[in-house]
Every structure is written in structure tokens, then in C-alpha cells.
Amino acid sequence: LKMSWFWLYLPLHVLMATSLCHSIKAPTTSSQQSFKTDLFNFYHSLILADGKETTVHLLKDIPRRYYFVLEEGRVLAPFSITVTPCDVPIEWSILVYKSPPGFPGKATPGDRDTQEVSKSQKAPSMVSTIFNYKGNSVETYMGMSSHSALYLLEFLSTERDTHITVYLTTDTTSGHLYPELPTDPRIDVVGIGHTTVTLTWKHSPSVLQHRESIQYCLLVNEKHNYKSLCAAETAIRSSGMKLPPTLALSLSPYLLEPQQVMILSNSELSIINKVSSGEVRQVCMGTKNTYTVPNLSPSTQYYFDVFIVNLLTNASAAYTGTFARTLEEPEPKVTELRDGKVVHVVLDGKKQKVYSLQYQARHKKIHFTFQLCRGQIRVHITRNGKTVASENLSGLRYLSLKGKLLDTYLVQLRSTEESNSSVKVQASPHFHKPLFPLLPESLKIKSFSKLRTCRSVTIAWLGTQEESKYCVYRKRIEEDQIWRELQSADRCSGPESRHKSEKVLCKYFYDLNLQRAVTTETIKGLEAGTFYLFDVYLFGPSGIPVRYHSKVVKTRKKC
């Protein structure tokens, strides 16, 4: 009797293990082996925390076990278990060890050996598998227990090492860790353009209850849909980049890697990850349930996943992902290039449209000239459909191509930045009169610091072996205007765009010896401690000017 009272003070999980030990004494060989295995499983298991999300790391082909106990004293105790695979499919199951009648602590008067034999005979009915699953979807098991029981969870990955999250709760009345999904959790595609896709989805009930702590986050990629935020983050990390711990909390630009770009506009945070399989975009837009994804590539299939995220608990739930293919880009309008004619092309950087020029050769050798006026532009040239040149333009660029008579050249131009860009283009036979003058090795203007005074500045620039006209212009500017002036300068514009008061002088010079083809000029009549912008224009036989790179110089404040 005293021994019976001793059992009553032991925890339930110790009692269950002791019950298993007693059952092993049974003479039946098969049941003995079975319960030795059960006992081994129990002693090599960890306790699963109640009401807390647990991260479980799995090694390939090595099972991982956790257990939890539903204490007695509760009538029809409910519980739920949610398992979220973060990568590959896994196998997991729930086993229950039920308390047999008359196990220690519930003993009735009688012979102890008789009780042990009786328990041994009933032992096989104590263990049962109540749930089994294999896959990579988020699965939730909801159960109800009307008696004390010990539950064992077993997890196994057969593909590779991975990790999962497990959430157990026995309190189903005080709210959920995970945000709730609507009855219809699908994402609807309501609009498709060449570079945009518009999505909408039904509101989560959690948004209506906890608007301040809940937000929607969208993941866009070109590979496939993800069934959980955990799986999406794992995939991005495996691509070779370090991702902040959680999409919803990745709001600090200091956490970004070099492969990531963060864009914040209209209270929406976008993080673009540059990965080998394309861009992975993450956008958190608060509680808005409609969003237009911008800046997509034409004729490309994208996959869209929406996650509802609880900012307080960092838990999330995934809507059913969808996909859409952007429309094909319409054939660009083609402009004909004629021999020797200059075409001035202005490109809209925001729309990223391609401007096309077509030229049919009347000679075997063709000479293309590009003068970049503003911004950054990439040129792509094909001959009869085959690429013959592709590069970013810089300053003045000559391209000589040799082919056959009546070859068709297609010149495609596009801006590589969001601001507007412009370029002048000319195509002509090789013997055609050159559009631009002969250029020096460098178009830089040099200033001499030691020759600066309070009232004058001395500058120098390179010339050529061909006698040409050079005109110098100056402009007074403020210090905070320097960057804007240099960035917005139209390198194709001539002196006609300048005010007459800005003109300093014009001069002719050349030297057959290129090492001596340098000229200097001292500009006087300046104000002390003032910034000045200097420009030099070179005029050739055609009269079309080439502008040297602008130079900013400050006069001395005290002399």
C-alpha cells in the first residue's frame, strides 16, 4: 500500500515509462521486443514545449522524436499540432501511449505478479499511431483526449538535411499563434500587362481583429510557389545569399547584402534579391489586399505567394500561391536610317522601351557614329538577325562594320537608368564625309591649382593635328548646384544653348606633333572665392560641335 502511494507522486511521463518497463517482463517474445523499442524511443525523445514554436533540425535518414503529456483532470482536453516543413518533404507521425487499467498508482488489492502478467497481456493495446503524413505542406492535427496520455512525435527526412517548425498548443480558446486565413485563401490575378501583374486576395480575419500587428507580404520569383514563408527564406538562403531572419521584420537597410536592393515608396517595403535563377522580390504592403507588381520582364512567367504575418509573434500563414505570364512586348516601331543623316533619339528611362533604327547597306563597309548626349544607353546591333555589336555607350563612339551589299542592320537603343537619356546616331559608308571632327586622345579639361588667383583661372585642353575651332564658355554656379549641373549637362548641345554673356573666347590651333597639341587659356575677371563651370566646344568641318567634359574650378578666397 505504501508503494502505491509512492507512484502517485511521480510525474505522468515517468509513470508511463515505468509502465513500459513492467510490460517488458512479459514472457511473449514479440511484445517484449516491441516494447523494448518503445522504451528506447521514449528515452531518446525531447519534451515538446506547449504554446511555443519549436525549430527542429533533421539529419538525413535519422529520425527525431519529441513527446508531450496531457495531464489528467481535464475532461475532453483539446490540443493541436502544426508542422511546417522549411525545405524538402518530410515524414512525421503521432503515436499515443494510453494509460492501461490498473497501472502503478492505480493499483487494486491483489497479487502483484498477477497484475504484471495482466498488464503484459494488455500492453499491445496501449500504443497506437493516430496520425501519419508525408509531404512538404503545412499540416495541422487537431485532437481531443478524454484521459491522461503520453504522445510521441517522430520526424524523418529521407532526401537531405533540413529543418522544420513545430507548434503544440493545449489552449485553443485564447487565440492562435498563426494568423487566420480566409475561407477562400486563393490569390486572384485581376490584371496582366507587359511589365505588371495586379493581384488581389480576400482579407484575413486576423487583419480585422489585430490591424496594427498584422501585415501582408508578397514574394515574387521565377521558379515556383512556396508553401510557407519558412520554405521561401530557406530557398533564398540556399541560392548563396544571407537573408534577414524574417521577411516581415527585414525592414532595416543595414541588414541587406550586396545582392539585395531595398526600395521604400508609398509606405511599401520592397527587397529585391539578385539570385542565379532571377530576381526574388519581397514586398510588404501593410493591410492592403490588392497590389500591382511593377517592373517585370515581358513574356516571363512569375510565381506569386502572399503571406499574412503577425509582427508580434513573427508567425505567418500562406495563401494558396498563383502564377501568371506577362504579355509579350509589342514589336518596336522601326525608324529608317539614311546615309549621313543624323537622328536624335530620346529614351524614357522609366518605361524602359527599346528604340529601333534600321539601315540597309549600299556598300560593304558601314560606319556607325554614336554621340551620347545625356544619361546611360546600351546599343545592340544585328546584321540580318545576327548580333554584331552590343555595348554601353560612352561619349563619342565609332563602329565600323563590314558585310555585304544590301545587308540589313537593326540598331536597338535602351536607357540603362530611370532618368531620360538621349543620343545622336549616324550611319554612312566609310568614305562619307565625317560627321564629327577629329578628336583628341582625351576630352578632359585640366586646371592648374598653382596658377589660380582670386580673379583668374588657367585651364588647358588637348587639340589634334587638324586645324579646328575651339570656343570657351564659363558659368558662375553655387556649390550645391555642382552635382546637378554635371549630371544634367547635355553633351550634344552646342554654344547656341548658352547665354551670350557666358562666352569667353574662340580660337583656332593645331599641331602636327600630338605631344605638343596642347593649348592653355587664362580666364580673367572672375570673383574671389567663387565656383565657375568651364566648357570647351570643338568645331569640325561639318560645323557640329563636340563638347569637352565640363570642369568646375573655385577661385582663391584670399590672395
From TrEMBL:
Q: Name one GO biological process term.
A: nervous system development
| Cross-referenced InterPro entries | FN3_dom (IPR003961), FN3_sf (IPR036116), Ig-like_fold (IPR013783), NDNF (IPR019326), NDNF_C (IPR045805), NDNF_Fn(III)_1 (IPR055271), NDNF_N (IPR056225)
Q: What is this protein called?
A: Protein NDNF
Q: Does the keyword Transmembrane apply?
A: no
Corresponding gene?
Answer: Ndnf_0
Which species is this UniProt entry from?
A: Oreocharis arfaki
Q: What does this protein do?
A: Secretory protein that plays a role in various cellular processes. Acts as a chemorepellent acting on gonadotropin-releasing hormone (GnRH) expressing neurons regulating their migration to the hypothalamus. Also promotes neuron migration, growth and survival as well as neurite outgrowth and is involved in the development of the olfactory system. May also act through the regulation of growth factors activity and downstream signaling. Also regulates extracellular matrix assembly and cell adhesiveness.
Q: Does the keyword Signal apply?
A: yes
Name the UniProt key words of this record, in alphabetical order.
Answer: Glycoprotein, Neurogenesis, Repeat, Secreted, Signal
